[in-house]
Amino acid sequence: MLIDTACSGPFSRSAVNYNAGCKTAVSNIVMSIAVMITLLFLTPLFYYTPLVVLSSIIIAAMLGLINYQGAIHMWKIDKFDFIICISAYIGVVASSILRVLLFVARPRTNVLGHVPNSICYGNVDQYPSAQTVPGVLIHDIGAPIYFANAGYLRER
Is the full-model pTM beyond 0.90? Predict the structure, then answer.
């Protein structure tokens, strides 16, 4: 997905709470139980769901958080505040798009090595004891390979 879940998770939960009409903190308890049940028992049902579908669900819920009437009212009352509000909105959208483009064009890359006493291969920077395989370079690329990042990956 295009959005980092560590920082976007609370936003999507807030959007769901708001759109469901929740008024108290009890909704957080109910939601946490629902999320726990989903993670424990229903996750296999979502395995083949494309991330684009899940992303569109979150985006649709987030659109409910935008106060269009408040923005129109702000335009009528104070145009400078409206310009600041729209500038902040456009700045967040632009920085998000820029982040996605940079992530796709310059993906994270790691050299992997065998971690002793395990069957795992790990990043040699993260696991100093990891041993690379002689004559073989195992490279972990954090994004799909295609024409926009092929040159960058070739250089790495």
Answer: no
